[in-house]
Request: fold
Amino acid sequence: MLKAMPLKGLLSAAGAAAICCALAAPVGLSTALTKAEEAKQAATKLNAPIALSEPLGLPQLHKDLTALVSDVRTEIDPNLHPEAQCLAQAVYFEARSEPLEGQLAVAQVVLNRVMDERYPTTICGVVFQGEQRRHKCQFSFACDGLSDRPRNPGAWDVAKAVSHVALNGYWDDVTATATHYHADYVMPYWGEILEAHVQHGRHIFYRDTSF
Reply:
């Protein structure tokens, strides 16, 4: 289930917008395989020199996500790379009240979008896509006009640890390559277009099977 892997490896491996969390429409599709490969190569090249987070030398086979996050939390460097910071912000603001699987799922949605040619090729680019459009961005905290500074130290530590787990591939993708999600008490129009695949906590995660 688990292998310590930097973002470069994660991006080259096999690959949510919630109304409470993000409610933008799926981006237009491109069917050209060559363009998809070019986008993935570009993303890999862009992120290759970035030391987002150093693997912590944790056991390779962790069977309990709670224990894994707890171990990471005690060892992680508090000084995050800006890209890792963006991922942790997404986890914190979108899912800090969710179970760990739900928090990890949000992080993995972001990384799945980084792999997808229809979205920006960096983590910060994905998280803050459309931030200039009030209440119409991809992740609502990015354009709600409120501070993006975490106020709950404990929840922020967990979000950083969860992000580290996702970045290093310590845990399988619990979303099965989802790129969208929404809260279970709303129904965005794209919910009838995409394939609902799995639910973690209050969030339902979707895959785009139209390409």
Notes: The helical segments are 7-12, 33-47, 65-75, 82-95, 100-115, 123-127, 153-167. The mean pLDDT is 73. The two ends are 27 Å apart (CA to CA). Residues 100-115 form the longest helix (16 residues).
